[in-house]
Amino acid sequence: MPVSTGKLLGLQQWIQANVMAEEPPTDAEAAARIRPSATLTPIERLGIYRGMYEARLIDALKVDYPGLLHYLGEAMFNELASLYVGANPSRSYTLNRLGDRLPEFLAEVDGLRRPALVADLARLELLETEVFDERESSGEGLPPLDQIADDDWPGMRLQPIYALRVETFRYPVQRYLAALRAGETVMPVLRARATHLVIFRRNYKIFHLPLSPSGAALLRALVAQQTLAEAGLASTKVIGHLSQWLSEGLFRSLSATR
Amino acid sequence: MANRWQLPDLGFGVGLRTVHYAHILANHPKVDWFEILSENYLDTGGRPAYVLDQIAERYPIVMHGVSLSVGSSDPVDFAYLTKLKELARRTRAHWISDHLCWTGVSGLNTHDLLPMPYTEESLAHVVERVRVISDFLERPLFLENPSTYLEFADSNLRECDFLAALCERSDCGLLLDVNNVYVSSFNHGFDPFDSIDALPTDRTVQIHLAGHSHQGTHILDTHSDVVIDAVWKLYRHATQRMGNVATLLEWDESIPSFETVHAEALKAREWRTAPAARLRHAS
To answer: Cβ(B182)–Cβ(B188) under 8 Å?
Structure first.
């Protein structure tokens, strides 16, 4: 496998370190490795790459976190994103997962106003990116509930669609994203309230469906492949939940074991 | 003049961009072909994959990547190559290209097309990696000359000579970005026509065209505007030398309507087929 260990490796390590570093190298260090042009010094030429590096990564985060960008404002977002990118440089060939650790990073930032809300908003947007890229599946082939024999119900397992996540938030942050996407000029004031959501994709669009605490527990149990009996089929509420979720297309298949 | 792989002149294509998905699916514009950014489709089973499948049913597809990092000192990423190969199979891609550059080292990725030092050491390194990658992909690899903003003190080969030697020794081909030749020629002070003349004529399967951003002291390859006449003249020079080559317009910033981008791409036909009249107009 062709791996360089010679001069090329040393030069690439130096360039990369100085493209990513907060402070530039000295003029002499740059001049030892980079030629001047007719109009730019070596350090100025390196500076073109230094400027583009952070801007590119922050732009990628803005694409994945538009709600967070709106909530924090451009200046604060840029400041936090710069800190994040410095602490979490990309190790992947794709920028799509650059922001995977942003919610936990935000939760630890000192001095951030309403850190729980900010982290929740980021977590919802992160889950949306996961749901966006999941493979496609649908429940079009599922039989209607009334065609399922009574004896089959307790041992039934439902397989969720791939593009589905169940999550609990400390703030109803989905309201903020909904208002932003609707183009509202006055954004909702969010107060702390435990909020259970299923985030899912149908026909390549992403939806949020609020869940009651018992509904969230039930759906988590089903996603974890418990049978309907194990998940609490006895309750009449369960049938109501199931009907709604099936109509929303949250499941792709079911299997029965008596 | 055919290339040595007998790969077709696909005509005049456009880079597929998300903002144009709805227009393309609704109107099925008469475009010769599309180039996709490979990394946008490697890890998704969502809408991008759905749209790509629809478009690949109707149009020839070519894959263009930014993450191969062919010049890196790190090991070749075979997991990435495996995904690339599968995408090529799914889209029936005519060819796969990336850039003569490196994007990171020591496990990190800057996501930039960083320049290579043009030395014998780095040439030998890239030749070996191209061979490994081509073998794995089971097809020739095509590399684009990038826009660069710095030159290394150690470089003792011209970029065009490095590319020509790389092609010869590794049996790879070229994606000639005429705008990049122009940008780099300004940034480094070389003659862009001489540079094109040094490249092998039978190894270029595709040409890129784009607009750029002139900063006074240097030019940035921003793909943010129409192609300037100086670049069109270079394009005409290249096609006179290399024959008709599949030509693609890239537009990545401040992207206008699909019709505007396509119309800009179709200007290439005029420059290719009516060069004298066009030159008089341009001058």
So the answer is: no
Residues 133-192 of A with CB under 8 A from B: 133-136, 162-163
Q: Do A134 and B46 touch (CB under 8 A)?
A: yes
pLDDT at A160 over 50: yes
Choose the mutation target among B25, B109, B170 for the interface with A, i.e. most A CBs under 10 Å: B109
Report chain A residues whose CB lies below 8 A from the CB of B49: 136
Domains in chain A: ranges and CATH: 1-113 (no CATH), 137-258 (3.90.930)
User: What are the domain boundaries of chain B?
Assistant: 12-282
Which residue of chain B comes nearest to A21, CA vs CA?
B110
In sign, the C-alpha dihedral spanning B130, B134, B140, B144 is: negative
In sequence order, what are the beta bridge partners of B61? B34
Number of C-alpha atoms within 13 angstroms, CB side, residue B277? 6
**Closest partner CB to A94 (pick from B42, B45, B47):** B42
- pLDDT single digits (tens) A15-74: 999 999 999 999 999 999 999 999 999 999 999 999 999 999 999 999 999 999 999 999
Local structure of A11: helix, strand or coil: helix
Whether the pLDDT of residue B281 is over 60: the answer is no
Residues 2-21 of B with CB under 8 A from A: none
Question: Residue A236: what pLDDT?
Answer: 63
* pLDDT (mean) for B171-193: 98
CATH of domain B12-282: 3.20.20.150
What's residue B283's pLDDT? 38
Identify which of A131, A132, A135, A123 has the alpha carbon closest to the alpha carbon of residue A65: A123
Q: Tell me the C-alpha distance between B246 and B235, whole Å.
A: 12
ipTM of the complex: 0.95
